[in-house]
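Lab meeting, item 3. Inverse folding demo.
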């Protein structure tokens, strides 16, 4: 389930991320994580909401999401 839009998708289509010391990073295998769908990852309004929710820099979050979408 996507943390932003709350829609259910197959797990392999979602991005798995985690919050690590004020940075959102790709899941490293340890700790709590969350899933984000590709639709919400490309939506600027959803990115702003996630940045506020996790209290992180919106520019860094946007760059990370673009990198993950492009490189996998």
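The presenter then showed the designed sequence:
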């Amino acid at each position: 389930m996507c943390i932003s839009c709350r829609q259910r998708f197959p797990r392999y289509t979602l991005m798995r991320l985690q919050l690590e010391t004020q940075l959102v990073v790709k899941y490293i295998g340890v700790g709590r994580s969350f899933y984000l769908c590709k639709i919400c990852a490309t939506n600027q309004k959803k990115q702003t909401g996630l940045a506020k929710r996790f209290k992180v820099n919106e520019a860094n979050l946007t760059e990370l999401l673009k990198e993950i979408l492009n490189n996998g």
